[in-house]
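// run 5 | inverse folding | seed 20
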């Protein structure tokens, strides 16, 4: 299947690690959950937690060890944020693009990037509204974007 906004095709990409727990895994289920909670309270997002556990602790997959995803562990302990992480990342990208376009008004590729990013946000919000992960009637206010990051 082709990529959405480029002419390229292909299936190459990263592969998920094995779902079985290796015999040399040094951590147990409760220890992994404690680490996830610790780093979430330190202000890390779920993807940052996963990368940190992989790089520093050698935990290849939290789901394989704890039989729960990082977001599920955070939801159980009421540590989730108001907005999903991917939506927040796209909002940060729009803020950076708008700041860039203020100084570089004729940058056409940045304008296209802004259009593509806003369409991604619109698709994501419609999904999250259907999945009830956002409150009903939630709408992105383009004039007050920095409010969402706080």
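// decoded
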């Amino acid at each position: 299947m082709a990529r959405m906004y480029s002419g390229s095709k292909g299936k190459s990409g990263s592969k998920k690690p094995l779902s079985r727990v290796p015999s040399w895994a040094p951590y147990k289920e409760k220890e992994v959950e404690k680490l996830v909670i610790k780093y979430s309270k330190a202000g890390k997002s779920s993807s940052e937690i996963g990368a940190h556990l992989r790089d520093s602790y050698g935990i290849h997959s939290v789901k394989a060890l704890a039989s729960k995803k990082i977001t599920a562990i955070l939801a159980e302990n009421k540590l989730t944020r108001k907005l999903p992480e991917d939506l927040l990342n796209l909002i940060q990208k729009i803020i950076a693009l708008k700041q860039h376009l203020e100084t570089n008004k004729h940058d056409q590729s940045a304008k296209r990037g802004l259009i593509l990013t806003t369409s991604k946000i619109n698709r994501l919000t419609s999904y999250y509204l259907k999945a009830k992960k956002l409150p009903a009637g939630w709408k992105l206010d383009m004039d007050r974007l920095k409010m969402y990051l706080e």
